Amino acid sequence: MLSDQPHKIVEFQGIEYTLLGTAHISQKSADVVKELVAQGDYDAVAIELDDLRYQALTDTNRYRNLDLISIIKQKQTGVIATNLAMSAYQKRLANQLGIEPGAEMKQAIESAKEKDLPVWNIDRNVGITMKRTWRGLSFLEKVNLIFGFGGFFEQSEISDEEIEKLKTGDMLESTFSELSENSAGIYRSLIDERDQFMAAKLHVHAEKLKTDKDKPQVLVVIGAGHLKGLSGYVTEEGNNQNTLNQLETIPPKKKWFKLLPWLITLVIVTGFVWGFATEEALGWSLIKIWLIYNGILSGIGAAMAGGHPLTILSAMLAAPFTSLNPTIAAGMVAALVETMVRKPKVHNFESLQTDAMKLSGWWKNPVTRVLLVFILTNVGSAIATWVSGFKIFSQLV
Question: Closest by alpha carbon to 224, among 129, 104, 110, 95?
């Protein structure tokens, strides 16, 4: 069964690991996983999933339980939007190829349960992976990554070249394949760090494996892109818990980046004070500039997202004040208002993945529209802060 499949069999601390490199869009990979679990003498099955993606793969109604208000308040809209965009891309693959991406992972779960074997989710949380990736990118790499999302919607058919890249195994790496090839930061976060994390997670699970066998066996189902790295790390000694803690830590923002919003607030407020100290009319003129630019551009952002008139009004009223308070964003206020005014219904959550497959669907579905309101209102507010700031500075000098 393994003769024509990418695999490695390694042993560490008395445990034999069969590392099976799979293609996430291959029926053959799913069939091999099924046969291996059925005929093999394994004591556990480990899969390249975290708890979030495990739920996504096994719970078809997962989006029904989304708490939009909590997502907005906890500033998780970016993670949810990213996951939806990737899910939409994978759904298009499923429709084109006739097999759901991740079928071999789902098969591993089902087969393991049939034999009453423990299933180990060994991958790192996808949100942490994306945040660590984002923090490690240069400004230009971040711009490329943002514009790269257009590729999820720009064509109805996935090209043969893209499909071949996906057959190398790792869905996260393949989704951002071009960037991961040209960016050491993306490769490190998406591939190498996860190889280290999965090796440490295997060792932690193995410590708790209870069996009477002299040499316990574990089947490890991973994307083929992780085969080389994981086979090396899994045979290395190390402090596993320290490795996990380190790789789950979100790198702090640079000090200057943290201080920048407060510095902008200080500069703007100082400008107001300076204006009033110079001439009262000038002071009111500066405040007028601030109110108009922040209100109009934030309102335009909310309108571009298809927000309700009350949502647009709330964005216009909130932006001049939230722009002076880095702890709250105009997009948060507008998104909360949009959620309350046009509260999404159950069927909107159920059709979320289908609607997200088309760019127009993001405006059609009330759930994704809330995400767009949050993002585009904040974009408008950010542009307004810089434009009005320069206007105020030019008035003063």
Answer: 104
What is residue 210's predicted lDDT score, i.e. its pLDDT? Answer: 78
Q: Following DSSP, what letter does each residue of 240-279 receive, concatenated?
A: HHHHHHHHTSPPPPPHHHHHHHHHHHHHHHHHHHHHHHH-
> How far, in Å, CA of 372 to CA of 184, rounded?
30
Backbone angles phi, psi at 61, to 5 degrees: -105, 25
What is the model's pLDDT at position 172? 53
Other beta carbons within 10 angstroms of residue 243's beta carbon come to 20
CA 53/CA 317 separation, integer angstroms:
39
Burial class (CB in 10 A: 0-12, 13-18, 19+), 255: exposed
4, 32 contact by CB (below 8 A): no
Q: For 18, what's the count of Cα atoms within 13 Å in the CB-facing half-sphere?
A: 21
17 compared with 397, residue with greater pLDDT: 17
Contact 297, 387 (CB under 8 A): yes
Which residue's structure tokens are 């079928």? 103
Helix (H, G, I), strand (E, B) or coil at 42: coil
Measured over the CA atoms of residue 138, residue 192, residue 209 and residue 38, the dihedral's sign is: positive
* Residues 335/72, Cβ–Cβ less than 8 Å: yes
* Alpha-carbon gap, residue 208 to 17, rounded angstroms: 15
pLDDT in tens, 42-79: 999 999 999 878 887 777 666 666 667 777 777 677 66
The total number of residues written for the chain in this structure:
397
Burial of 279 (0-12, 13-18, 19+ CB in 10 A): exposed
Q: Can you tell me the distance from the alpha carbon of 45 to that of 109, in angstroms, rounded to the nearest whole number?
A: 8
Average pLDDT over residues 168-180: 53
Q: What digits encode the pLDDT tens for the residues 110-153?
A: 999 999 999 999 999 888 888 887 777 776 666 666 555 555 55
Taking the C-alpha atoms of residue 80 and residue 305, their distance in angstroms, rounded to an integer, is: 16
